[in-house]
Amino acid sequence: MRILVVGGGTGGTIVANNLARRLSAEIRARKVRLTMLSASDKHMYQPGLLYVAFGQMTPDQLYRDQASLLEGSIDFHVDPVEQFHLDQNKVITKSGKTYEYDILVMATGSRIVPEEIPGMAEGAETFYTEASAVKMFKRLREIQEGTVAVVVGVPHKCPIAPVELVFGLHDYFKARGIRDKIKIKYHYPIGRIHTIKEVAIWAEPEFKRMGIEYETLFNVSEVDVENKVVRSEEGTETPYEMLIAIPPHRGMEVIEQNNLGEGGWIPTDRFKLTMNGHDNVYVVGDTTNLPVSKTGSAAHFEAEVVSENIASIIKIGTPVRDYDGKVYCFIETGHDSATYAMFNYQNPPDLKPPSKPMHWFKMAYNQMYWTSVRGLL
Amino acid sequence: MTTQTETPLDAMPNEDLQRLVEFAQLVTAGRDAMSDEIVTRLAGAMSEGLTLLDRLTRNEGLMHLLKVLDRQDTQHLLIALSEAIHAASQEIPAAPPATGGLGCMLRVARDPGTQEGLRLLSVFGKHLSHSMREQHRRGG
């Protein structure tokens, strides 16, 4: 049995490590072969980028060698896939090699596309890459007064990021003693301040308490870099001194180029996590088109279901678990307090009051992440 | 007229209450002394420690070695090994440098200690080779 995992991010790494643990006897007996193909030899802890943007972490703290995170029995290659031939159960990589499989796991992730909104790439700060997070921090240190506008593109990774960013800005400027000289204005594309109703209800009084202005139904149409104005499709505009954008996201180009899913999101069965029409192809993490948040935690919980099901198919011939849509998001409510949102397909989140121990839990998780991707937590 | 409702705290002896207050003070002091950096370092150490523990406990060879080391006869061997390390560490620096040549080789070869040492190494080598062949045959 040949299992091929494409993508070495959170979802792909957890699937591969969990499978290596569950199928260790089969791999040793050479009945199962487990291969991972990734575009990079490095693994980045992506949630850490927000800390980089506020100067709370340095980029080098976010990386580990991918090979060091993988079980020794996984055959790992840095060789991104360029062609998927799902009808022939094979993929072809950038180096020209062909990898055949019996079971394929797609965990290719997502990418930012700020260039889809005129002016956003040139005029807005963001924190979704290492370079942009460092640049944003340098800009934050320079600004002395004026309006810091936050705009949100859709769809985007980590739904909590916009509110965490705003809370972080409030605390950052307060610590610098210039909060009274900075106006923070938040813009959100739908009719409330967050896509998750319960988060919106909880965050609104927090925004008021912190003196954060907000405008809903603001879908960014363009950034006028020269005049420092951001405009919406609804016809409103906000002048700014500094603009921070949560850029729109898409699935990876290779998914679109191979016609596997519109926007790079693969049509996925919400319970079985198999690609629609392909029972031997599993999809995890950002790559799915599921109506759940594109977060590391969703990728983690999906990866556990996928690996358990693949292992049970090999051992007893049938899958044993369904994905229930579980997502667990930490919400940093500033630089020294946090809360969390946990929800699934059936149950909405029930947010608790923020606390310092919860912030420490998040700080601790930033380190425990490496234990988590190794398939231990 | 007012009525007083008795709470569980009212029923508590003063000493117990005092201890509760002291415990709360301890928790507050610990909380105040903590910082993000301390939490990060502790969690980092815990994360690496867990990973190491996981690797050790899933290392088949190491687990087998531990099982063998638990046996009484192996413990005798370990004691003998530690005594041999101690004796050798004293004997080697005190011994004159080897003079070299065939005569020296002959003297060393005639020494019963050398012969016992060679026998020990050859017995160890014989069992090691046999075990490796067996494992290879079983597809390990």
Question: Which features would summarize this protein structure in a list?
Answer:
heterodimer; A: 377 residues; alpha/beta; 2 domains; 6-stranded mixed beta sheet; 32% helix; 25% strand; B: 140 residues; mainly alpha; elongated
Molecular structure report:
The complex is a heterodimer of chains A (377) and B (140). By secondary structure, chain A is an alpha/beta fold. Chain A folds into two domains: 2-109 and 252-327, FAD/NAD(P)-binding domain (3-Layer(bba) Sandwich); 114-249, FAD/NAD(P)-binding domain, CATH 3.50.50. Helices cover 32% and strands 25% of the residues of chain A. Chain A is built from eleven helices and 22 strands. Chain A has helices spanning 10-22, 24-28, 48-53, 66-69, 120-123, 130-142, 161-176, 197-210, 253-257, 296-316, 356-373; strands spanning 2-6, 33-38, 42-44, 63-65, 75-78, 81-85, 90-93, 98-100, 103-106, 110-112, 146-152, 182-187, 213-215, 220-224, 229-232, 237-239, 242-246, 249-251, 274-275, 278-283, 327-332, 338-343. In chain A, the strands form seven sheets. Chain A has a six-stranded mixed sheet, with helices on one face. In chain A, α1 (10-22) runs parallel beside α10. Chain A is globular. The mean pLDDT of chain A is 97. Chain B has 140 residues and is mainly alpha-helical. Chain B folds into three domains: 18-57; 62-95; 99-140.
